[in-house]
Amino acid sequence: xxxxxxxxxxxxxxxxxxxxxxxxxxxxxxxxxxxxxxxxxxxxxxxxxxxxxxxxxxxxxxxxxxxxxxxxxxxxxxxxxxxxxxxxxxxxxxxxxxxxxxxxxxxxxxxxxxxxxxxxxxxxxxxxxxxxxxxxxxxxxxxxxxxxxxxxxxxxxxxxxxxxxxxxxxxxxxxxxxxxxxxxxxxxxxxxxxxxxxxxxxxxxxxxxxxxxxxxxxxxxxxxxxxxxxxxxxxxxxxxxxxxxxxxxxxxxxxxxxxxxxxxxxxxxxxxxxxxxxxxxxxxxxxxxxxxxxxxxxxxxxxxxxxxxxxxxxxxxxxxxxx
Amino acid sequence: xxxxxxxxxxxxxxxxxxxxxxxxxxxxxxxxxxxxxxxxxxxxxxxxxxxxxxxxxxxxxxxxxxxxxxxxxxxxxxxxxxxxxxxxxxxxxxxxxxxxxxxxxxxxxxxxxxxxxxxxxxxxxxxxxxxxxxxxxxxxxxxxxxxxxxxxxxxxxxxxxxxxxxxxxxxxxxxxxxxxxxxxxxxxxxxxxxxxxxxxxxxxxxxxxxxxxxxxxxxxxxxxxxxxxxxxxxxxxxxxxxxxxxxxxxxxxxxxxxxxxxxxxxxxxxxxxxxxxxxxxxxxxxxxxxxxxxxxxxxxxxxx
Amino acid sequence: xxxxxxxxxxxxxxxxxxxxxxxxxxxxxxxxxxxxxxxxxxxxxxxxxxxxxxxxxxxxxxxxxxxxxxxxxxxxxxxxxxxxxxxxxxxxxxxxxxxxxxxxxxxxxxxxxxxxxxxxxxxxxxxxxxxxxxxxxxxxxxxxxxxxxxxxxxxxxxxxxxxxxxxxxxxxxxxxxxxxxxxxxxxxxxxxxxxxxxxxxxxxxxxxxxxxxxxxxxxxxxxxxxxxxxxxxxxxxxxxxxxxxxxxxxxxxxxxxxxxxx
Lengths: 323, 304, 262
Ligand SMILES: Nc1ncnc2c1ncn2[C@@H]1O[C@H](COP(=O)(O)OP(=O)(O)OP(=O)(O)O)[C@@H](O)[C@H]1O
Ligand SMILES: [Mg+2]
Prior knowledge:
The complex is a heterotrimer. By secondary structure, chain A is mainly α. Chain A has a single domain (about 45-310), classed as ABC transporter involved in vitamin B12 uptake, BtuC. Helices cover about 70% and strands about 0% of the residues of chain A. The two termini of chain A are about 25 Å apart. Residues about 1-10 of chain A have low confidence and may be disordered. Chain B has a domain at about 20-230. Chain B has eleven helices and four strands, in the order ααααβββααααβααα. In chain B, the strands form two sheets. In chain B, strands 1-4 form a two-stranded antiparallel ribbon. The termini of chain B are far apart. By secondary structure, chain C is an alpha/beta fold. Chain C has two domains: about 1-80 and about 175-260, Rossmann fold (3-Layer(aba) Sandwich); about 95-170, no CATH class. In chain C, α7 (about 185-205) links the parallel β7 (about 175-180) and β8 (about 205-210). Chain C starts with a strand and ends in a 9-residue tail after the last helix. The interface of B and C includes residues 298, 301 and 304 of B. The site of adenosine-5'-triphosphate has 11 residues of chain C, from α1.
């Protein structure tokens, strides 16, 4: 047997010019350094926007696993974000749980929701998932708006700031750093998943379901894993989003929210981690730069999405997916 | 009201709702039949149809008045305009994608949907627009149940359109070609059938039916709104799945069943009318779990 | 039907919308054998493969493999039970390297999940190394180890077929189903393929069931040959039996493209 095991398999989830491990470290450290000092350089306004962008990085990386790796269209991703946020809200406010005690329940709730929605749907043609998730997104928001326990239209407020090992997370800057850590964890987890047995299975199933089955891969299980892992990312984002704002209401979890996350993923480049991060920043920072667009903001994004699909479906980040 | 009256009333409500669902579901199912695409933009064509109908009616109501004559003319013109829009969308956005991975064309359909929605949002500033139809509220009494003439005319128009479609599909050359393309596109290409043409006609008819429903809905409910296609798109999909996606009679049947289910479901204790959307979504999930081929759909072994 | 049968089909019947594609097929493969399935175009050979591997659901009959009933299993379960296959029209995973294509076969023989991957547990790292090593071994076995890192779909056609075989071998099968592996190969490649098939059986102890139109190859390599025509098994026996069977000759004469004459 021949063993030429010196990093020969390409690293999935990156574009072509981050394949070199040394360059990768340099870029990573530079970005990290920037993130650490950013709040000291910029004012609090920019810090809030960056915090939001980092939240989007977490959400987009989660959706990227579903759409970018497994090739499943999820149009109700905000539902998982909502499940995470509302579980924290309900358990801490209505039941008096500590944030960290409620947190595992938020993740568990998302897993359950993912299995309930994905389980039956993923047995069918993949495109059914798109429309079922669309419905699911609406149902979650609708329930939040109509149930007593979720505070109906006005939502839940007064969610306590959590503390961590004696560090009371309180100020905007504190939350900024929390989201820096979450985004880094999301990046590392995405990267490791992409380059694992499960990550490869997602690509196999996406390229050719039948051939993947013939290779002994349970496509329903593999897709469900992608959908549920995506749900977990969303719920984690939602949990900290709730803690950060202290108040949540149904309108934060609209169809528009799902669409924006999806746009970021497609714009940046499905399946390419740096591209997805870039997409998240564009979607959040773009409107800040183009403030006077007002109502046209979404239209601009929608037209952009259409143009991307027609002319560069692999997104703006260079290279094909997975290469 | 007696239990009988309640049942009668809900039958009428179900028929009206079901007519809308069926008209939209037909386009959904026809387009799925020929290019295997869940056309997310379909609900938005219904919405655009409502707006075009509104514009036409505003222009002509001086002459025709806002009654059913005006609405019928508006509906007809809206069908033509939106039918053409559907064809343009297919040519520009979907046609280049027919051989691309399925995910790409699905996302493209979503993008088209968002462009339509947000174009109208930008123009109308997200406001409801009063439709301006102006017809009487006369009707007939059946015991304690009051059925308006509007409801009868509306159901009548929907039935007329569906019968027309059925005749078209079963009696004409194009209709036969459409069914052939739905079964095997490549084979049709080889046999010299103009597949692109058939696809275009399918989009024309499907979009026109959605526009008819949109105009009728605007007239019946009194206003149009940029987001009005969203939920009905979802419901029409549900109706198409209930009937068996790809099946034209299935879409009609599914639309009516969903209409009745909603009308009666909201009468059940614990399911107020505000939960009716949740109710129809639950129906969708149940159908997908227990009978994904729907009532009239055939299960088909995909070729390897 | 004694225990020396690795695979045994009895009464398998498959129809699509009333069109019978497999009609009461009885068929078996002994352990450690190379068996061929031949028949004119459209006879139902590929459909038989698809029925064995769980892609098609026959309306009746049974498929027993190594003491286990396969008919109710999903394709991935069939593969896990020890049957691997290639496709008539090569189906490699696009945008992925040759090695990654082959690694897909190891999926059902390994088990690390998401959590192990995220935490990079030692067991997961070990398994990854194992997947790679065995996949490289499979590539070396089919003779294309030096192409491991090329994008699979850019390889020459003959080599793509070998990637498919390597990928099937990576599932560690007991039985390998090859659907027209010689189609599109030149004569030199066909000789090499014949050798490869013999080695798969002789060195790896994997039984082989082969669908093939190239009669020279079939006659040379098979211990038994079965003939399918219009969904019915019309003959079964050694190369000599088949060559002299009037029913077989008739079945092939009914066909006009001249393929099949040896
Ligand atoms: N999924 C399917 N749906 C409907 N008919 C099918 C399907 N799969 C196969 N058939 C039909 O079954 C018959 C047998 O096809 P099959 O592919 O098994 O033949 P084959 O013996 O492999 O032919 P070839 O030598 O050309 O590969 C053909 O008439 C084919 O059209
Ligand atoms: Mg075949």
